[in-house]
Amino acid sequence: MKKGISLRVWLRRYWICVLVFSVILYFVLQSCFLKRITIKVEKNLQNSIAAAEGYIEDSLEMADNFIYETYFNSTAIPDANPFFLMRYGSPFEVSMAKITITAMLQNLDAWSDMVDGVLFYTDLDTESVFLEAGSMETYAVRSELKRFMYQMLAQDSGIVPERYMLFDASGKKHMLRVMCLENCYFVVHVSESKVMQTIQSAEYDERSITFAADEAGNVIFSSAPIDVSLVTGNEGTYIWMSGREYLQTGYISPHTGYYFGMLTDRQSITEEMWQFRLAFFALFFVLVVFIPISVYVIHKILEQPLSRILSAIKQVEEGELEINSGEISAISEFYQLVDTFNHMINRIRELKIENYEVLLDSQKVTMQYLALQIKPHFYANVLNMIYSLAETKDFEKIQRISVTVGNYSRYMFHDVTELVELKREMGHVRAYMEMQKIRYGSQIMCTESIPNRLWDALIPPFIIQSFVENSMKYAFNTKLGCEIQVSASLDNMESNLILTIRDNGNGYPQALLDNGWKQKKEEGHIGLRNIWTRMNLIYEDGADIFLYNDDGAVSVLTIPYVAIGSEEVEDA
What we know:
17 strands
């Protein structure tokens, strides 16, 4: 039978699965929640960075417009055009043109907070003219910028200035906006600090790192050191830097081509999850507290009642019917189960008594029926014998057989439901053989081979006598002399008694041997059938009969060995 799993093991597995599922669910929900927050933060930061970069771009674009408007308004009146007078006017007109252009540059510098300084350059026939505007703080930067532009433009270095350029000055980078109008170059420069201040306005918190990089991801300037390479396509992903994880968010300007971005500490983003974590851990704590309580309650209301019911069922299985499980649970289903179980036990007890009484009656009737089958058969043979002796007027033998029949009858009317000692059965066999010798004389012989310690073995009555009578009936009819041998022994385990009856006749018919045990119930073998039926009633499957031929019929009876003491019993 397949062995099941106890309720306690199932509960333990169930709660382990619940805890494991809760942990897995926590990490899955946290991952989903973090992803949603990350997408939201990344989108907001990208919009903020784009707005900050747009402010820088708009400021430079307005500077361009200011220069264009001033330049083209001046060219409308050639005599008053400072750019024209700068190249073709008299020295006085050149000086006035420089003053006019310088004033224009100063207006441009003062007009936008993003602009750190403005530089004007043109190359005249006699000289290279540099005009500038800006604060004193940026004077050193403008000086370096003038040298940079002079090396690039005046000395014909072959380098074509781009619309947007980077310039290093005083250890800091500057963003340049270069515009060329008829050999006149206007350079607007914006410092790193101005760019960073603008981008930092979009920072998530003070731990964020803002940066500007080129299209290849090389950092141009940043609010804090960045020691990893940035990939412009990694927006919205986390990168590791200095042992911490940062969300990379960026925006590539369609005008400048620069990559403006921000690295946001993951811890800053996950801090928004405290409400989720608090709620989940509160739920998890309630679950952990609930587990032992639920286990105890289930143990009290389910496991203990089930254990008691199972214990009662086990006692019933072992044959103990004098039990009553009582009221073991307040649960209505268990109460009904216990009530039904008690009713079932009472009914089993009643049925067992009824069945036992019916079985006794059946066995008694069967035994009486079997005894009736044996006794008329025997007495018919005895009467035939007496009749034969009377015909020969052998009164002496008639007297002997009468005495022998009297002794024989005392055993013959023994209660067939009781076992008898082997010595009493053999005494009965001797009485039977004595009657046969009276009739047939020395033509018959019966020998015994029984150890002394087996004389007190208990056997069903008449089983040896029936086989001896069977040998007399068949062997004596086919031989001039009939020799019968009766022996008894124990098997190797000394748990079974083996009785062997053999004769010197022609043996059992082959049809009887071939058909096996079924033949024992065929008509024409009433004695053999009765013996087998009686042995099954007494011993059930503990007894056996084996028939074979060996220079005559051999019958081997095997029954459980049961013996009493060497109590003296009157011989039959």
